[in-house]
């Protein structure tokens, strides 16, 4: 998983002087980190809910869908995790629409510092959903 590959960058998250190569690497890895999480949520939406949001805001709507319980499942993720993942999603949109040379470490470092906590939260909440699936 991308999280393990990011360890050297996570260790530098409080360093204000990070070079362009590391900034570019962090940008690409943050994009991949969020994309991997979104793919898991997409599998749940399609496989369990049988539907995916289809509007132009489907990425954000997917997070909200996963935070809302349905008649057949509990919430997959908490609203707190939606807030955190929304920060990664906003970065992902920025990354995809801008040149990587415009990425700045002072903006990225905050997200890089949140990777470990976010990874643990996602792991914990998806494991709780997996436990639900075993008993459903």
Helix/strand-derived category reads mainly alpha
Question: Could you give the distance between the termini?
Answer: 28 Å
Order of helices and strands: HHHHHH
User: What's the total count of β strands?
Assistant: 0
* Count of separate DSSP helical elements: 6
Which runs of at least 5 residues are low in confidence (pLDDT < 50)?
none
How many domain units? 1
Mean pLDDT: 92
Major sheet details:
none
Portion of residues in beta strands equals: under 5%
Radius of gyration: 16 Å
Shape from CA axes? elongated
Helix content: over 70%
Can you describe this structure?
The protein is mainly α. The protein has one domain (16-135). It contains six helices and no strands. Helix 3 (20-49) packs across helix 5. The chain is elongated and about 50 Å long. The mean pLDDT is 92.
Keywords:
136 residues, mainly alpha
Give a topology summary.
Layout: H1 2-5, H2 7-11, H3 20-49, H4 58-67, H5 79-97, H6 105-135
Helix pairs in contact: 3-4, 3-5, 3-6, 4-5, 5-6
The gist of it:
With 136 residues, the chain is mainly alpha-helical. Helix content is 73%, strand content 0%.
């Amino acid at each position: 998983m991308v999280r393990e590959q990011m360890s050297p960058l996570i260790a530098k998250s409080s360093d204000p002087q990070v070079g362009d190569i590391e900034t570019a690497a962090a940008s690409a890895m943050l994009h991949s980190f969020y994309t991997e999480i979104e793919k898991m949520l997409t599998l749940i939406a399609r496989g369990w809910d049988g539907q995916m949001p289809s509007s132009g805001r489907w990425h954000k709507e997917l997070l909200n869908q996963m935070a809302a319980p349905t008649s057949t499942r509990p919430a997959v993720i908490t609203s707190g995790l939606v807030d955190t993942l929304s920060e990664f999603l906003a970065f992902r949109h920025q990354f995809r629409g801008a040149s990587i040379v415009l990425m700045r470490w002072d903006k990225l470092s905050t997200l890089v510092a949140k990777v470990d906590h976010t990874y643990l939260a996602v792991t914990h909440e998806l494991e709780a959903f997996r436990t639900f699936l075993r008993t459903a």
